[in-house]
Amino acid sequence: MANVNAPFGFRQYSGLGSAPTYEQVTFGPGGLSGGIAFNAGAIYYGDPCVRAGSGSNTLVQAAGSAGGSTVTMAGIFQGCKYLSTAQKRTTWSNYWPGSDVTSANAVATEAYLINDPNAKFLAQSDSTGVQAADLGANCDFNIGTGSTATGISGAFIIHTGAAGAAYPFRLWDLVWAPPGANGVSLSGTAAAYNYVIVGFNNVETKNLTAENT
After folding, report:
1. pTM given for the model
2. What is the mean pLDDT of residues 38-64?
3. Which of 4, 89, 152, 177 is most buried as measured by Cβ atoms within 10 A of its Cβ?
4. Of 1, 2, 7, nearest to 195 (Cα)?
């Protein structure tokens, strides 16, 4: 059975903390300074996030690209808290809708991020897939299309095979089983849309590192 193309962003796989929050931190009034950039677009659960600009204290969804993302990430989005204009109350949500908040209240938003440099994430690869020979290399991602129904990210891993010391992620391992269900064969050959384990390479809490390969 072929792997299903259904990316879900970056789902925490392991870390130094304890489940379910692991190394989650608050970005906003209740934690690190800042919040979510007002009216700058949606951010989904599992999306990579970046600052809105150099020196900015607000977050936006990272753009991603096919082998060229070198912007330093702020972390992986885990949800938010904001004062909803439509509901007239404080709302906790697994995704940021990109609206439903007034500009006056935008500074009071809180984003929940994972930015620990040792965190590991489960992610889906693209149609090329990732194989055992790729492990230790840095890689990029595409942001994909998130779901407004579930709030889940549509981001996925891209491994171009080219060196990139400033790429955002490092390939750590493959999901080996079950083969044909987003795993790979025991030979470690690439399978389209297979699952991989990745860690941060280019994130604010970690210095850039070159590839191991």
Report:
1. 0.87
2. 85
3. 152
4. 7
